[in-house]
Amino acid sequence: MIVRHLDNCRGTSRQVRDPNWNSVRMLLASDNVGFSFHITTIYSHTETPIQYNNHFEAVYCISGNGSIEQLATSDSEESVVYPITPGTLYVLDQHDKHILRGDTEDMVLACVFNPPLTGLEVHDENRSYPLLGDA
Ligand code: 9YT
Predict the structure, then answer these.
(1) What span, in angstroms and rounded, lies between the C-alpha atoms of 127 and 120?
(2) Residue 87's pLDDT is what?
(3) Is 111 in the pocket of ligand 1 (CB under 6 A)?
(4) Which ligand 1 atom sits closest to the C-alpha of 59?
């Protein structure tokens, strides 16, 4: 069994920081459970374009507010904006290109990745994470 507390993961190598967000990777590939688990905080009044070409992700909003814009993939499609409030789940099952926006409050999100992140990924020029082997 693995038992960890968020407070003990903060401030360690499990926490990564970006100008728009920080993320605590409570479970990583090295934990060998087939997914990674993250508590990500998206700061208010920010916007972050992302596309995970190599991963599926489920994201559940614990607190705060913001939105996700699913960007059109062709000229015949329109972008769609979904509000995010506590209780919202979004799942990037199509490697969807999106923009995550923090509104008036920081958004705290519980995120699951399949395949799991190793913790060494850095967003590439497409705002994606590369597929890495186990770290
Ligand atoms: C909201 C979201 O996409 N979280 C992803 C996890 C975060 N970017 C990380 O831990 O790298």
Answers:
(1) 15
(2) 98
(3) yes
(4) 1
User: Which ligand 1 atom is at minimum distance from the Cα of 57?
Assistant: 3
Q: What is the 3-state secondary structure (H, E, C) of 25-84?
A: EEECHHHCCCCEEEEEEECCCCEEEECCCCCEEEEEEEECCEEEEECCCCCCCCCEEEEE
Model confidence at 12, pLDDT cuts 50, 70, 90, reads very high
Question: From the CB of 24, is ligand 1 less than 6 Å away?
Answer: no
Quick check: CB of 97 below 6 Å from ligand 1?
no
Q: How far apart are CA 119 and CA 76, in angstroms?
A: 37
